[in-house]
């Protein structure tokens, strides 16, 4: 079998290294995917720095994959060679734990994460279990589809389960890798969209579909949301518990702060602020492959697309550094 180029993390905290490996054979219940594009997500830091328990090294990061099935393992029936697929964070479930028996695969007690439990998309070919596969529409390009497999499904799925109805006020906090997709998904879902940024993001926010722009550096975003009647949903994408705490006062009655920006500093709220108006704080984790399929279909139907910067696979270290700098606009995508 011929060789392939692989970008791996040799041990926690080490630099990326480019190596050649044998192209892997898929085992039973698995497929081999020819990777066409792979987004670089901030959560790849977990693999790079060893922040997720139980990772074995060397490990290949990457959980925003768009590719084509290239080989089928034993027993794989419902997938075909040549079929376009995506793989995201949810890398498979055991199907037997209590959560799985209840059909709640995202909460599988033994869930696998692509790029953490097994090698992900920073390579020319990868092997994935069929439970991790999402069918991908033909009309989406690989580089545009890849970021929808994590950033896209996370924002879309969080919004559609947030409890807002069309015409309700929905605020998107942060205009970055998650937020720029959140604004688009919210607008196309029929919400009245308030984008909360810092400084001069006004024109960009409006271009993405925001009806209102709130500059949190110049005004109190909670007070501004209350002037608009209070938000039914605030999608908090900026990884800062402190900045999320400052938004809770912007919720309307029965409103929900939906938390998708991962940070370790606490969200602080006086209990009375939640009790009056029956407000909620709700954490949200991406979704399963069928959620990704819904995300891809919705993007295809409505024209929602990520804004991307492309790097070739062998420049993965540069692409990762660009993502970590916080200056990328807005998703970095590796091309093969
Ligand atoms: Zn991700
Ligand atoms: Zn399970």
Summarize the structure.
The chain has 336 residues and is an alpha/beta fold. It has helices spanning 45-49, 98-101, 142-145, 151-160, 179-188, 202-208, 221-227, 241-245, 271-275, 289-302, 316-325; strands at residues 3-8, 17-22, 30-40, 65-72, 84-87, 90-92, 112-113, 125-129, 133-135, 169-173, 192-197, 212-215, 231-236, 251-259, 280-283, 308-312, 331-335.
Description:
With 336 residues, the chain is α/β, with parallel strands linked by helices. It has two domains: 3-150 and 287-335, Medium-chain alcohol dehydrogenases, catalytic domain (Quinone Oxidoreductase, Chain A, domain 1); 153-283, Rossmann fold (3-Layer(aba) Sandwich), CATH 3.40.50.720. It contains eleven helices and 17 strands. It has helices at residues 45-49, 98-101, 142-145, 151-160, 179-188, 202-208, 221-227, 241-245, 271-275, 289-302, 316-325; strands spanning 3-8, 17-22, 30-40, 65-72, 84-87, 90-92, 112-113, 125-129, 133-135, 169-173, 192-197, 212-215, 231-236, 251-259, 280-283, 308-312, 331-335. Strands 3, 4, 5, 8, 9, 16 and 17 form a seven-stranded mixed sheet that branches. Strands 12-11-10-13-14-15 form a six-stranded parallel sheet, sandwiched between helices. Strands 1-2 form a two-stranded antiparallel sheet. Helix 8 (241-245) links the parallel strand 13 (231-236) and strand 14. Helix 4 (151-160) packs across helix 5 (179-188) and helix 4 packs across helix 10. The longest helix is centred in the C-terminal third of the chain and has 14 residues, at 289-302. The structure holds zinc ion (2 copies). One zinc ion is lined by residues 41, 43, 63, 89, 150. One zinc ion (ZN) binds at residues 93-94, 97, 99-100, 108-110.
């Amino acid at each position: 079998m011929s060789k392939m180029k692989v970008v791996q993390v040799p041990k926690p905290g080490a630099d990326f290294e480019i190596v050649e490996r044998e192209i892997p054979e898929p085992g039973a219940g698995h497929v081999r995917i020819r990777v066409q594009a792979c987004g670089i997500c901030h959560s790849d830091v977990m693999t790079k720095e060893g922040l997720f328990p139980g990772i074995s090294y060397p490990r290949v990061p990457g959980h925003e994959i768009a590719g084509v099935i290239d080989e089928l393992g034993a027993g794989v029936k419902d997938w075909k060679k040549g079929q376009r697929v995506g793989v995201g964070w949810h890398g498979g479930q055991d199907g037997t734990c209590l959560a799985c028996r209840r059909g709640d695969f995202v909460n599988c007690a033994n869930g696998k994460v692509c790029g953490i439990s097994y090698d992900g998309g920073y390579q020319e070919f990868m092997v994935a279990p069929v439970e991790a596969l999402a069918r991908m529409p033909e009309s989406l390009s690989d580089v545009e589809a890849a970021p929808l497999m994590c950033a896209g499904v996370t924002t879309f799925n969080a919004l559609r389960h947030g409890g807002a109805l069309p015409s309700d006020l929905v605020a998107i906090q942060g205009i970055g890798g998650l937020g720029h997709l959140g604004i688009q998904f919210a607008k196309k879902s029929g919400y009245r969209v308030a984008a909360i940024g810092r400084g001069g993001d006004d024109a960009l926010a409006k271009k993405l579909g925001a009806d209102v722009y709130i500059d949190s550096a110049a005004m109190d975003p909670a007070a501004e949301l209350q002037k608009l009647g209070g938000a039914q949903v605030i999608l908090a994408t900026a990884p800062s518990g402190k900045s999320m705490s400052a938004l809770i006062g912007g919720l309307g009655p029965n409103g929900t702060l939906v938390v998708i920006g991962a940070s370790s500093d606490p969200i602080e709220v006086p209990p009375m602020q939640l009790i009056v108006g029956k407000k909620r704080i709700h954490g949200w984790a991406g979704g399963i492959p069928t959620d990704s399929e819904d995300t891809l279909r919705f993007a295809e139907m409505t024209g929602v697309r990520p804004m991307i910067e492309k790097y070739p696979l062998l420049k993965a270290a540069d692409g990762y550094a660009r993502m970590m700098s916080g200056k990328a606009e807005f998703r970095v995508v590796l091309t093969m």
